[in-house]
Structures are given as structure tokens and as C-alpha cells.
Amino acid sequence: MKIGLIGAGHIGSNLARLAIKNGDDVIISNSRDPETLADLVAELGPHAKAAWAKGAATEGDLVVVTIPLKNYQTVPVEPLEGKVVIDTMNYYPARDGHIADLDSGKTTTSELLQAHLPDSKVVKAFNSIFAGDLISTALPKGDPNRRTLPIAGNNAAAKMAVATLIDQFGFDVYDAGPLREGFRFQNGTPAYTMRANREQLIEALKKG
After folding, report:
1. 147 near 196, Cβ under 8 Å?
2. Which domains does the chain have, with CATH numbers?
3. Residue 208: what pLDDT?
4. Which candidate in 37, 103, 136, 148 could, as Cys together with 172 as Cys, close a disulfide (CB 3.0–4.6 Å)?
5. Is-contact 57 76, C-beta < 8 A?
6. Which phi and psi (to 5°) does residue 82 adopt?
């Protein structure tokens, strides 16, 4: 699989590392010239390359958006039509500025991205785990200490594709429901960054 990454920060870089380990190809981008990612691409090896965001969106079979929320409207729309898009973003008003519809609870971060990408299949995932934990807490399938990560989305097939990827990366998956339910594991909730098994995660989500 080719995985496009729009964003090359801590989460994006570690997802790229997991993807390469899983045997996938990655196309990674940031807000600057692709040449600024030369060191990361060299570390990742021959199955990685840098591109502009439009290139990552175009070439990726599945695309991860992992940028500051305030920049979500810069995500290319047309190249992502029909594609599964993983949203890792969280809302931090001190960084992103206040967004009235989020402050009032009228919408959620992933619903904002879905509205921006009306013909894409957005799935909320990887926003409830510290970047370092993506590497340090990944475990083989069947390990009794394996961590469970939540996802949310409106398209069942898209969620299944993302769940398969997360499983391959080293985590169990719990489907928290439609995209709106992503608020239950955003920053500030009991489930956020919680190292939990399935039962523990379910209890934490109820309090979200």
C-alpha cells in the first residue's frame, strides 16, 4: 500500500516509520519544500519519498492528515476524492485560535475536515496517543498487553481499512461509532493518551 502523509511532525514521522516497518511505501509532505524532509526520507529508506501535500494526496492509496487543526483548509480536496483519509488532529485553542463551532459543541474536528473533504471518507484515529507511544507501545497481535486505540467514522468500509492498518501497526482497535463520536477521545477526555485494553477504553469513552 502507498500511504500519503500530509504533515511530517512527531505523529506523521512515527506513522511513516510504522508504515515502512509494515512493508508499505510512504509519500510524506510538510508545509515547506520537500527538500526539507531529506534527512527523514534518508532515515526511512527506499520505500519513502517526499512530496508537496498535493503529491502525497494524489499518490497515497490511503492518506493521513496530521497537521495543526488551524491549517485544515489547506488540505488538497480534489486529489482526495473517494479516498480514505485518517484525521489525527486535535483542537488546541491556544495554538489554533478559537473556532466557535467547536467551542459550542456544534461540530467536531473530524466533522470540520469531512466538510472540507465532502467526497472523502474521513476516519478519526491516532489522535489519542502520544507520538512516542506509537513506537514504544506497539505489540504483536495476541499479546495480552496489547493496547487498544479508538476510531470513529461514518463509512464502515473506510473504518475497516483503517482498523486493518492499525492492527498491522501493533494495536487493537475499538470502533467508537460515527465520526461525531470522535469527541469522546479528543484531548481533555479520559480516553486521551490512555494506555488501555478494550474494556478499559470502553469505560473511558463513556465518560468522554
Report:
1. yes
2. 2-206 (3.40.50.720)
3. 86
4. 148
5. yes
6. 80, -5
Q: Is the dihedral of CA 101, 102, 107, 111 positive or negative?
A: positive
Average pLDDT per consecutive 10 residues, the chain (208 residues; last block may be shorter) = 97 98 97 96 97 98 98 98 98 97 96 98 98 97 96 98 98 98 97 97 95
Q: How many residues does the chain have?
A: 208
CB neighbour burial string for 84-101, b if at least 16 within 10 angstroms, e if fewer: bbbbbbbbeeeebeebee
Pairing of strands 121-124, 148-153: antiparallel
DSSP state of 57: H
- In angstroms, the CA 170 to CA 145 distance is 11
Sign of dihedral through CA atoms 34, 37, 40, 43?
positive
